[in-house]
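Sample intake sheet
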Amino acid sequence: MPNNLYVTATEERSGKSVIVLGIMQMLMNQLHRVAFFRPIISDQVEEKPDHDITLILDYFKLEQEYDTCYGCTLKTAYELINSGRDDDLHDLILHKYREVADSYDFVLIEGTDFRGQDTTFEAEINGDIAANLGAPVLLISSGRKKSVDEMIRQVQVSIDSHKEKGLILVSSIINRAPEGLTSQILSDIRRRYHPDEGLPFYVIPENPALANPTVGDVKRWLNGSVMYGAAGLNMVVGDYVVAAMRVENFLEYLTPGCLVITPGDRHDIILASLSARSSTSYPEVSGIVLTGGLVPSDNVRRLIEGWSGKPVPIICVKGHTYLVAKQLYELYGHIEADDQPRIATALGDFSKYVNVAELRDNVISDRPTRITPKMFEYSLTERAAENRQRIVLPEGNCERILRAADILLRRGVADLTILGRQDQVRALAAANGLDLTWVEVIDPQTSPLLEDFVQTYLSLRQHKGVIEDMARDRMSDTTYFGTMMVYKGFADGMVSGALNTTAHTVRPAFEFIKAKPGFTIVSSVFLMCLRDRILVYGDCAVNTNPDASQLAEIALSSAETARTFGIEPRVAMLSYSTGTSGKGEDVEKVAEATHIAQNLIRERNLDFILEGPLQYDAAIDPEVANTKMPGSAVAGRATVFIFPDLNTGNNTYKAVQRAANAVAIGPILQGLNKPVNDLSRGCTIDDIVNTVAITAVQAQAEDG
């Protein structure tokens, strides 16, 4: 199978960019260097770059230059074809493609947008280009506004025409199918049409959150300016309401998520729209577009600026109301690289409706054995989504937590419970344009679980002098309540620390979740994502100066954690001496820890190798290992590094993080009966997403 894939649609507005996002993530999860290439792009308007190229380059942080990502424009293609220079067109595309392909493991190729004058020409040229590039083809058909018969007929014609060209097909996807018809379409395809028994078919239903534009799309499309409510630009527009009538009549036309279009001097409509946003009697509007280049009067602007209800994006545009409405009906949703909620929705839908493992096996012939940071990050969310766990987030008053929750839900990574006052959590989410409709929000102080949790905590900690009032006070705290949810099985894991200190996050876990059987301490590791590999460093965050027995336990826990995340554990017990080359109390502690750990490995019949004492250079560098410890199974090949104390471990992970520009994921707590993980108070939204995914994977391992 060639190291490329050609993704082409059969018509415009097929949602092709959503499929391309999903496939690119699938590829990045398995391959080191993936490139993106479009043989022909639509003609650039006002020097704007191609949307899909920009989306893929920016979101996946590809190292390609923009100019290497396409062959030519549609206008150039027409000119060459019309002048009888077909070969010149194919030579141009092939030359630019080879320049990219020579430097990458895999090239994902995306066909034309079908927005030219002749869609038949585009269908033909896509097939010819795929043949010339030696690329297998993935076909995308649109199910938008079609019956089941029409969709199947379109698939039949498309597959037959591509097979006539001698092209290899890897899959056919019907995208934007009518909601609720997914299984019926698949059943009818398999019953009525069998062009290739081995060809996988997938059907992805229409998702209004992807198909409909956001208020931000409207702003960009109309070249408008935001007057108020910039935080709500990611709100999805459900419909357009042109307000040219009296308020009492206008209100009857409001629908959920509608965008109100009205002249900028219609103060009555503006204030009525704001009121509807906060009223439980009317649907919430997604935003207001003020036409004519008009802005509200000073008094009305003061009212808007003092508005204490849910914020509403208000955009000012030039052009009269009819012209603006006409322009908007030509707009459809575009996903931008910084639109994390919609990208998460797109990737979540792709994973839900496409058998990614099956498609991956059809597309990728050879997979590398090395793992890169990007591959590791994508595999985390993929693994978590395979068997969704319930993770509790105690910091419901933190905007970053809510933004991460929105992404996690859209991606289908985990089921979530957020702790905090219901009204405050929902209001903060709404103020930031986040959809947490399906999230369970629990207020510990009013929860029916509180009394049971108080009595449980009292029985667990009574021997430490805890009385009922103290137990009630503890369980009213969101962190203690969340930890008790994990202990009692109402949640599979907990992530906290965006606002709370590490001590506050982990203390409840130490109190009553406690260490696993066979372990006496809880420790931590960092997953160090280097350019071409993932290493495990422990313990760099919890235990200050572990003794030999504790150090051995840390080694065993770290090996188990490594295996949980797909890293083959080869454990190096680190010291300032390799083998028997040095003497001293610190070296002897590591030597004793190594002896204890090796005995435990034999006793417990564990399947990994461990050696020590080893210096860091001997553990990681094969050449140094050949000199200092020839014949070692670990030296020069270590994947798990156990530091003798916190001072050494903490400084080393930070030094490697800065010097090697590595990504440090953690600390990940290990050795607990159930997973609880701590965030840095400076964590980003991506950090939270990754940590929740890690916690979910740990919980899966506990279930297994």
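Comment: The mean pLDDT is 86. The chain has four domains: 4-210+347-353, 215-328, 377-510, 515-671.
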